[in-house]
């Protein structure tokens, strides 16, 4: 089935990075340990029919979110913006409605399983995998959220790009957790994971968090990547406004949980709650004074 209609519809919504992946994803030969925060586990990470019976294809969309570096910040770039869990599904639902007018059944996924979504984006010809484990788009780099509409319509798939990351090693060298080795990734000492970890942290884990000023997330392996230099600012209006670059102890401490949700409920870090943010602030402050 020709796919111009859905790519045109996406373009009308301002989404210029749209591709089609077949529902039959290649399962990687080597499986890396799955981060406990990943929402998809086991078979459903690769088998789209486990998410949507009779799924035949996925319309995959990138949502670039790059904004120029703030002068001073303690939040990773995606955390400075409105929560993509609120923004992305609204666009996907509109695309699903267009598909539904042609028949079939659709299901929108956004952050259902990060690995599947990166793999879907590669299969849909939207980019290539970096050694930093990010999906890299040739123009927008790796600062992109990925969403997809699974469909039972027999859409013709696109072809993966014939490109690779430069394997320059910059991400491996800068990584505060030392968790990128030989193209593999070990989430256990990834600062991004540790800043979200709820369980008590070991001294080694705290030391990883304290190595850079961010209190939620980590952008180091993206910040230094040559594919992320001189990239355009996000074209998505929701990601160009209402930016929050600093979160201070004084802002958080007096808030009740209800007040915290009212103030920060639209931010990607809010699901983890105030307590973990305050813990991370203390760890970073003890080391950097920030
Ligand atoms: S920093 Fe270098 S090795 Fe790492 S993803 Fe980017 S190009 Fe690849
Ligand atoms: S997010 Fe940070 S800690 Fe995790 S792999 Fe990248 S540089 Fe390393």
What's the quick description here?
This protein is 29% helix and 12% strand. The chain has 290 residues and is of the alpha+beta class.
Give the tags.
290 residues, alpha+beta, four-stranded antiparallel beta sheet, two-stranded antiparallel ribbon, 10 helices, 29% helix, globular, binds iron/sulfur cluster
Write up this protein.
The model has no long low-confidence stretch (mean pLDDT 93). The chain has one domain (1-290). The strands form 3 sheets. It has a 4-stranded antiparallel β-sheet, with helices on both faces. A two-stranded antiparallel sheet has the order 4-5. Strands 7-8 form a two-stranded antiparallel ribbon. Helix 6 (203-210) packs across helix 10. It has helices at residues 4-12, 84-100, 114-123, 170-174, 191-194, 203-210, 220-223, 249-252, 257-264, 274-288, and strands at 18-22, 57-64, 106-110, 128-129, 135-136, 144-151, 180-181, 184-185. A hairpin with a 5-residue loop joins strand 4 (128-129) and strand 5. It is globular and about 60 Å long. It has 10 helices and 8 strands. By secondary structure, it is α+β, with helices and mostly antiparallel strands. Residues 130-132, 165-171, 224-227 line the site of one iron/sulfur cluster.
Counting DSSP E segments of at least 2 residues, the number of strands comes to 8
Which molecules are bound in this entry?
iron/sulfur cluster
Could you describe the largest sheet, including whether it forms a barrel? 4 strands, antiparallel
Mean pLDDT: 93
Radius of gyration: 19 Å
Could you say which overall geometry the principal axes of the C-alpha atoms support?
globular
Query: Span between N and C termini?
Result: 55 Å
Structural class: alpha+beta
Strand order of the largest sheet: 1-2-6-3
Which percent band covers the strand fraction?
A: 5-15%
Note poorly predicted spans.
none
What's the helical proportion of residues? 25-40%
